[in-house]
Amino acid sequence: MENRENLNIYKASRTIKRSENTLYNALRSIYEDSIFVGEIAQLWPELPLLANLRCGLWYSMKFHSTCYFKSTDGHTNNWSFNTSRLNLHVALLAGQKGGCMIVDSTRKGKRFPDSMSKTIPIWTCVLNRAIMNYRTRFGLYGGAEKNESNDSAECGNTINEDSYNWDCSLHLPLWVSNTERVLIEERLDGWTKDLEVSGADIASIALSLKKPLRPLWISQKTVIWLNEVPDCDSWDFTPIILVSTSSPSSNLQQRTTSEFSWRYIAGAGDDEESWARGLSPSLFWKHAYDLINSGPDTCNKTVADIVEKDRVYRAQRGENAPQISIKPSKSSSNSGHLPAQEQLGLEPLRMNIDEKIYDKNSISWLGETNLAVGTTQLAKDASGVDCVLSCDLETNSFSFKESGAHLNLSIVSSKFDRSSLLRNLPSAVNFAKNNLRKGKKLLVCCNSGEDISICVCLAILMSLFDDKGNFDEGRLLNETRINKLELRRRLVFICQFAVNARPSRGNVKQVFSYLCGGNVAITS
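Request: output the structure for the sequence above.
Response:
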């Protein structure tokens, strides 16, 4: 009897939570938090504003660029420096502009997500150490000396006339315990070596950065005196300002305006598939005024109209515009709510991500390999391309005079089929081989241009190119044994050109399995 009562209380609390996490509450919360982001951005207008994907992308109508630091890489006892998510473009941009600001949010009632508390601090520290090692190795330090401190070593830097210490210590926020700090510091040397052997272009970053990277944390509880805002040039480091949009006082706060009553949701932009109903950040900001002023009662219908009109518009232009399917939650049938207030979720396979504003307007050529990667939409109008390998579920048509210049492979994410990519890689590599050996320029594309197409390019580079990026039709692959280090090196090479690459672990594992003989061999 007691277990049944506990279960009923649990179901009731879940129902209440779902009723509070409505679409209007989420959008209104995002809009209110974006005002804070705009205020912070105005304090240092010279610094570029970056969104940490994907949650951070909702909190401003305009970002300079994006980055991808995962909170899981900073979770306690799971700390990681992931060479498949190096975000080197962030370091280069910070060097060029004198710093940058990164926007993210969290639902968990904390002031900062783990991506900001630990993942990015680890990233800055490892990059600083690799840069210091590079400059020392090539004699860019004049009489460098190491001075031991409680945190780590510092080296004298005399690259320019100004002389200052290159800080290689680990800078963590005060709320990270000393025990956790010590455990992270024990891993820093190993992570630095991983970066140095990954093939990352440390030289370009070392030349770009005049001062070491260092994170700073700003939340809605941070006190900043407007008449004492420091100039970035006055700091002896390159600031990576981490802006957490969440109001940490409570996960849910009742708020009232002259027109509507609504509940604030911290980190409302997170997990958009579960609440956004097909709305993307770019669509939201195009119609923000109408959505916010529509009120809770008509918000769902307003969003549905906006999403459908956008879908029709893109379909008329020949773009990929699948119908958005929305499924009701389990409790919607007996919750007693009107349809406009039901908690709904998107089917992931139907998620439209073509409108993401972080998609670039050009494809990414991978060095001098005659291999490029991009979205399917960009592929249709891409110039300088001789053949296309499309990895979309839907068949796409491309106008090429020569037959056999286009191959469509229906590949789905590893979340839905753990071997979909593996089964299709032999055909993909053979198609690439037949065209690249003729000197043709090949574009590999998928719907997002960030995951499946990246992994297909990885398989092609590993299968058909040597370690210097020269096309060898697979000779090196037949003569050597594939290891994960070389796989990471090639992935880092791709990410240097395709900065939005976000290959999933499951798809990368399928590439490794294929290269290790997990499928049929390449035919001649």
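DSSP finds 14 helices and 17 strands in the chain.
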